[in-house]
Structures are given as C-alpha cells and as structure tokens.
Amino acid sequence: MNTRTLPVSLSLLALTILLTACGEDVSGGEVIAGGIGLYLIGSLLALLVVVFAVLDLVKKPYSIQKKVIWGAIIFFIPFLGAVLYFVLGRNKREVF
Question: Most CB within 10 Å of its CB: which of 17, 82, 85, 88?
Fold first, then answer.
C-alpha cells in the first residue's frame, strides 16, 4: 500500500465503522446519539482537512512570511482557512 493512500484508507475505514449502525431501528435516546455521531464525522473530516493543509504548507518552499500568514489564517479560522489555502494559496500566482 502506498503511503499517500494510507490516510485516505484509514479515514474511509473509520467512516465505514461509524456508519455501520445506520440501518438499525433506534429508540428516542439512540437518535440523539446518532446525531452526535454525525457531528463527530463532520468534525473528524474538518480536522483532516486542517491537518492536510498544515502539512502541505510546511512542505511547500514558500517564504517564511507567506507560511506565517497562511499558518495564522489556518489557525484562527480552522476549516475555512484550510479550504481557502487549498483554493487560493496553492496557485502559481502570489496571493500574499
């Protein structure tokens, strides 16, 4: 298995495990727990996006000023900052 596909494989495995009980009949209390599970899945996916953005930022040969600015954006606006980094920060043209 390629090391680049390992995080994707692990996240798909975790998502599969979390979604295995979706077809069962649930009582009122379990419906609330199912909602918490959906928030957990969304939070984990958002965390993965932020982690991949930080790792990509560290690996890129940008100037220290650009790395500090994008790092601050990702830190203070976690999910939106990471998405903005992938949309704007990785382009060939300079954003900052």
Answer: 82
